[in-house]
Amino acid sequence: MSRFIIILSMVLILVSCKTQKSIYSVVLTSDIKDKIGTPYSTVNNSGNEYVLAWNEDNSTGTTVVHFGVWEINTGDEIYQGTAIKGKVEWLNETALYLEDYKGIVENGVQIFKYKIDLLTKKKTTLHGKVDL
């Protein structure tokens, strides 16, 4: 009898976890649509803890990339931003690589490559491989 209770408990826990993930999935999908619009693309980080979602909007004649990062298990939004004529991708487990062509000139150099640390929420300029 105790073996049956243990097995039943394990099945209930697994079903509960799967249901919880499904709930987060629906909430997450809805939140992504609300924040960055549709259609959108997604890619998880390699540990499947976070999802990066982005949408390319060409309605103004200039491509604007709207992007955000959400924690998969909770559905919480971690970071949100935009890039003009740019791109965003995973740099590592907890950082993004961002290209943003805003035309900012500093010391005669156009700055448009950034690292976004999702743990500190800091966006820093990249100056080649030394900053990676």
Task: Describe this protein's structure.
- With 132 residues, this protein is of the alpha+beta class.
- Helix content is 27%, strand content 39%.
- It has a four-stranded antiparallel sheet, with helices on one face. A four-stranded antiparallel sheet has the order 5-6-9-10, with no helix packed on it.
- A hairpin with a 2-residue loop joins strand 5 and strand 6.
- It starts with a helix and ends in a 7-residue tail after the last strand.
- 15% of the residues are buried.
- About 8% of the residues have low confidence.
Structural class: alpha+beta
The largest pleated sheet is described as: 4 strands, antiparallel
Q: How many helices?
A: 1
Q: Overall mean pLDDT score?
A: 80
**How much of the polypeptide forms β-strand, as a percent range?**
35-45%
Shape: flat
The string of secondary-structure elements, in order, is HEEEEEEEEEE
Spatial ordering of strands, largest sheet:
1-2-3-4
Residue windows where pLDDT falls under 50 for at least 5 positions: 14-24
Which keywords apply here?
single chain, alpha+beta, 4-stranded antiparallel β-sheet, 1 helix, flat
